[in-house]
Specification:
The complex is a heterodimer.
Chain A: H1 2-32, E1 35-37, E2 46-48, H2 53-61, H3 63-94, H4 99-107, H5 114-125, H6 131-137, H7 151-161, H8 163-175, H9 179-187, H10 192-221, H11 224-229, H12 237-246, H13 251-276
Helix pairs in contact in A: 2-13, 3-7, 3-8, 3-10, 8-10, 9-10, 10-13, 12-13
Chain B: H1 2-25, H2 27-48, H3 67-70, H4 76-109, H5 115-127, H6 130-143, H7 150-174, H8 178-186, H9 191-220, H10 223-228, H11 235-243, H12 249-277
The chains are: A mainly alpha, B mainly alpha.
């Protein structure tokens, strides 16, 4: 009898905690999203009127920031994949005894605070940094072009900041590939490119899926990179939610936007996992 | 005259070819150097500017000094924020590691009704954008008239760290050889003794790793903290607010210090592992 109860007793405290501080808040957020201001009340006072129009209003008003969030997150994810794949491949297959050392090197930069690194990029890419003057001298960018406060800086910052979320799962799945399968492919007269396309890439798909999800989800909801490296023209949906909460005290709109973001991400993720055919991942 | 020109051009062709061959063979090495340069540029920048004799705004290089390292609390708010971050991080680590490890044992070691639902509940917080987690928790606190501050932040951090602890510890449990526990039972150890003498020591490195992960997630978190901490400052919050007017060099000292400390812990951990493996 006691044996049947054991797992439930182990789960109880943690799940009680998650229920109170994760599920309940989400339910409450859903509840907030359909409220309207109390007539004649103070700012920040709302009552439940089940106004689902809030969602449509919030979406139409902020559709630009929504699409920007998803486009930036997508570009950052693709860039991170392009940077990480060769890196993870090299560490898994070419590093020999330096494997662990190089893995530590991949994670190491992320021990310096996320915010400090983002601010560092702002200063490196800024007018006083060394990148802009160099590029201007070389004539790659015109004297009036700046790099900070641009979409380029925001996407670059996101790519940089979420890179280990891509590299580590990629490494984990590439490292599991038996090098003999690659040799076998070569023995059967496949050239390097065919071997990659037909053997390496399919075998590393779980890592690609996990890495892209772990990069895309935080990137789509991020507002720190846009706030530090961007301008009002690069505002993402996270920036809107943040300012609705703190500056405008418009909780229903913020809640509706949060919910729309979460739903959009969940739908995209589900479609993506189905397409990628690695459902056992979750 | 023309002879000289011919003489000069002859060796350049094999040189070019030799370079191309070298480049082809070392392409992956060249790539790795470039990738690691990209990864370390902001770290090197932060480190370098921790030695800047900068005064208030640490934007332009003004000269080398060790003063910032000798007196990291020279900018007073930096150390208050750092102390808060460490306190919150330690509390969040303790609670999330205990709760998460228990869940990991339940899911990893038992077959029970609702196991897949449990897995889903663990996965969901990781698949939810931080801003939604932070905003929804703040709404809940507001409903119950709880002011954001120190303890709400701890609660928020425990909430998002639990899932990462569960995943890390569960992976370790899954890699255990079940025969070791069976052997202990065969040698008349009861269930509790087996757990304490065999299972727990074997899972311990996973738990330690999970605790380190929880601490670093908590310490580095900005978005959820920003929603739930009210007027309490943490290190990332301090950097964010200071970013507009220039960050004091002392913040760079702390960032670089954290970097070397974490690196030392990881290397020490690897060293211990290697000695054990022998």
């Amino acid at each position: 009898m006691g044996k049947i109860r054991t797992p439930y007793l182990l789960l109880l405290p943690g799940f009680l905690f998650l229920f109170t501080f994760f599920i309940l808040p989400i339910v409450n957020l859903a509840q907030t999203s359909t409220q309207t201001p109390i007539a004649g009340g103070d700012t920040g006072q709302y009552e439940q009127t089940l106004r689902f129009q809030n969602y449509i209003d919030a979406f139409i008003e902020n559709r630009e920031q929504f699409s920007r969030s998803f486009v930036y997150a997508l570009i950052a994810t693709v860039l991170a994949l392009m940077i990480s794949y060769p890196l993870a491949y090299a560490i898994a297959f070419k590093a020999g005894k330096y494997k662990n050392f190089l893995l530590v090197l991949v994670v190491a930069p992320f021990f310096t605070s996320f915010l400090l690194r983002t601010v560092a990029w702002k200063q490196i890419l800024g007018e006083e940094g060394f990148v802009v003057p160099t590029l201007r001298t070389l004539g790659i960018i015109s004297p009036s072009t700046t790099l900070t406060s641009t979409a380029f800086a925001v996407v670059m910052g996101m790519t940089y900041n979420f890179l280990p979320f891509m590299t580590l799962p990629l490494y984990a799945s590439i490292d599991r590939i038996d090098p003999r399968t690659l040799e076998a492919s070569g023995d059967l007269y496949a050239n390097a490119f065919t071997t990659f396309r037909k053997v390496t890439l399919p075998l590393s798909m779980p890592g690609v899926v996990a890495g892209t999800l772990l990069t895309f989800i935080p990137a789509a909801g991020d507002y720190v990179n846009a706030a530090i490296l961007g301008s009002p023209n690069t505002k993402m949906i996270g920036n809107v939610i943040e300012s609705r909460y703190f500056k405008i005290v418009d909780y229903p709109t913020a809640a509706a936007l949060s919910f729309t973001l979460m739903a959009a991400i969940l739908i995209l993720v589900t479609i993506y996992i189905r397409k990628a055919g690695t459902e056992e991942l979750v | 005259m023309s002879k000289k020109v011919v003489d000069a051009t002859i060796p350049t062709i094999p040189m070019m070819a030799r370079f191309q061959r070298w480049f082809g063979r070392n392409l992956i090495r060249v790539y790795m150097v470039l990738a690691f340069t990209y990864l370390f540029i902001p770290v090197a920048y932060t480190f370098a500017f921790s030695f800047n004799d900068s005064g208030k705004s640490n934007l332009i290089w003004k000269g080398f000094t060790l003063d910032n390292w000798k007196n990291p609390c020279g900018a007073p708010e930096v150390c208050t924020a750092l102390a808060n971050s460490i306190k919150i991080g330690l509390l969040a680590t303790i609670f999330s590691t205990i709760l998460g490890t228990m869940i990991a044992f339940a899911i990893g070691r038992h077959k029970f009704k609702g196991r897949s639902t449990s897995n889903l509940l663990i996965f969901l917080p990781m698949a939810t954008p931080e801003i939604v987690l932070g905003a929804s928790l703040l709404s809940l606190f507001l409903v119950f008239k709880i002011n954001p501050g120190f303890w709400p932040t701890v609660v928020a951090h425990v909430m998002f760290c639990i899932s990462f602890v569960v995943v890390t510890v569960k992976a370790r449990i899954a890699s255990l050889d079940p025969r070791l526990e069976q052997a202990a039972m065969d040698l008349y150890a009861n269930e509790f003794q087996t757990f304490r003498r065999v299972t727990l020591p074997l899972v311990a490195p996973g738990i330690a790793g999970a605790a380190l992960l929880a601490f670093s997630l908590s310490f580095d978190d900005f978005i959820i903290t920003n929603f739930n901490s009210g007027t309490v400052s943490t290190f990332p919050k301090f950097v964010y607010t200071a970013a507009a007017r220039g960050i004091p060099a002392q913040a760079n000292v702390i960032g670089s210090g954290m970097f070397f400390l974490a690196l030392a812990i990881v290397i020490a951990g690897q060293f211990v592992n290697r000695r054990k493996a022998r």
